[in-house]
Design goal:
This protein is of the alpha/beta class. It folds into 2 domains: about 170 residues, NAD(P)-binding Rossmann-like Domain (Rossmann fold, 3-Layer(aba) Sandwich), CATH 3.40.50; about 120 residues, N-(1-d-carboxylethyl)-l-norvaline Dehydrogenase, domain 2 (Orthogonal Bundle). The chain is about 45% helix and about 15% strand. It contains 12 helices and 11 strands. A 6-stranded parallel beta sheet has the order 5-2-1-6-7-8. Strands 3, 4, 9, 10 and 11 form a 5-stranded mixed beta sheet that branches.
C-alpha cells in the first residue's frame, strides 16, 4: 500500500488543512521540513497567509491554494468539516493519505464517504494549545496517534510517516487498535469538555471529588455503549482515564469552553448528541450523559438566542 512514500521518503508533500490552534502547533513542530504546506482555499487565504506566533516565536506559513499532496492532516473544527471536505479537493490525488485530527469519532467516516478511493486513516491528537487571534501559547503536542483500525503489525508506509514525526520530535504513536484509541479520547472529551463548558471549569477545577465522580459516571456509560459496537475498549482504557483525571492540575480550560465563551459555533453535537444517538440505536440508557447534554444544550441555545 502507498509505495510512493517509500520512493519519496522525506520528499513527500505534507499539507495541513485548518490553521487553528492544532494546525498551527503541528506546523510549528514540523518547521524545517522542506515540503510542508498550509492548504488554503482562496476564500480563506487572508486568514491563513499572515504570520503567527507560537510560544513567542514567529512563523510565516508556507500557504498554497492548489497543489497535490501526499499526506494531509485535517485540523479543522467539526462544525467546519463539511465545508473543508469540499475545499480539500484541489489538494487530493488518488494516492493522498488523509489523517483527520478532529475531536469525536465521526470525522473519518465523513471524509471517507467523500473520498472513498483514498486512504483515510484514524487519527487523534492530544495537545495543550490556546489560540487568541494569531498567537498560540502553551503549545505542545502531547501525543499524535494515527493508523489503520488494526495496526498489530504496522505497515511500512505508516512507519515512514512515523519516522518523519520522530525526526521532528513530535510525540506520536501507531496504536494497535486505532478505533478504540479514538473512542478513548472521545470518552475523555465527553466528560471534560462538557463539564468544563457548563461550569467554566479549569482542568484543576475538575479534580474536585464530586466532579470526578460525575466524570467517572460519564465514562462508564460510554464504555457500555462501546461494547455494543464492538469497538474494543477495555477496562484498563477506562482506568487510564480515571488516572488522567486524578492528575489534572492545569488552569487551562477546554476548547469547547473557549468556544462557548466566544459564542457562536461550537462542537457540542460531536459529544453528547452523538453518544445519545448511538446509545438509542442499541436501546442503551445513558441517563447521566442525557442530563449533561440537556443542561449544556439549553445553556448554549440561551447564549445564542435560539
Amino acid at each position: 500500500m502507498c509505495p510512493f512514500i517509500y520512493e519519496r521518503g522525506e520528499n513527500m508533500r505534507i499539507g495541513i488543512f485548518g490553521f487553528g490552534a492544532v494546525g498551527i502547533t503541528l506546523y510549528s513542530q514540523l518547521d524545517g521540513y522542506g515540503n510542508l504546506y498550509v492548504l488554503s482555499p482562496l476564500n480563506r487565504l487572508e486568514k491563513t497567509k499572515n504570520e503567527v506566533f507560537v510560544n513567542e516565536i514567529k512563523y510565516k506559513p508556507n500557504v498554497i491554494t492548489t497543489g497535490l499532496m501526499d499526506l494531509i492532516f485535517v485540523c479543522v473544527k467539526n462544525y467546519d468539516l463539511d465545508e473543508a471536505i469540499v475545499d480539500l479537493k484541489p489538494f487530493i490525488k488518488k494516492e493522498t493519505i488523509i489523517i483527520p485530527l478532529l475531536n469525536g469519532i465521526t470525522a473519518r467516516e465523513k471524509i471517507l464517504k467523500a473520498y472513498p478511493n483514498n486512504n483515510v486513516l484514524y487519527g487523534l491528537i492530544y495537545t495543550e494549545s490556546n489560540k487568541i487571534d494569531n498567537v498560540v501559547t502553551t503549545s505542545k503536542i502531547i501525543n499524535l496517534c494515527f493508523g489503520e483500525k488494526d495496526n498489530t503489525n504496522p505497515k511500512e508506509y505508516l512507519l515512514d510517516i512515523k519516522k518523519i514525526l520522530d525526526k521532528y520530535r513530535i510525540n506520536n504513536e501507531i496504536a494497535p487498535n486505532m478505533e478504540a484509541k479514538c473512542w478513548t479520547k472521545w470518552t475523555l472529551n465527553l466528560g471534560i469538555n462538557q463539564i468544563s463548558a457548563l461550569m467554566n471549569a479549569t482542568y484543576n477545577d475538575m479534580s474536585h471529588p464530586l466532579l470526578k465522580e460525575l466524570l467517572y459516571d460519564i465514562f462508564n456509560e460510554v464504555y457500555e455503549v462501546s461494547k455494543a459496537y464492538n469497538v474494543g475498549l477495555k477496562d484498563e482504557d477506562i482506568k487510564s482515564l480515571h488516572e488522567r483525571v486524578n492528575n489534572f492540575k492545569s488552569d487551562r480550560v477546554t476548547s469547547l469552553t473557549l468556544d462557548f465563551n466566544k459564542g457562536g459555533k461550537n462542537e457540542l453535537d460531536v459529544f453528547g448528541k452523538t453518544l445519545i444517538e448511538l446509545a438509542e440505536a442499541k436501546n442503551i440508557n445513558v441517563p447521566v450523559n442525557k442530563t449533561i447534554y440537556r443542561l449544556i444544550k439549553s445553556y448554549d441555545d440561551r447564549k445564542n438566542k435560539k
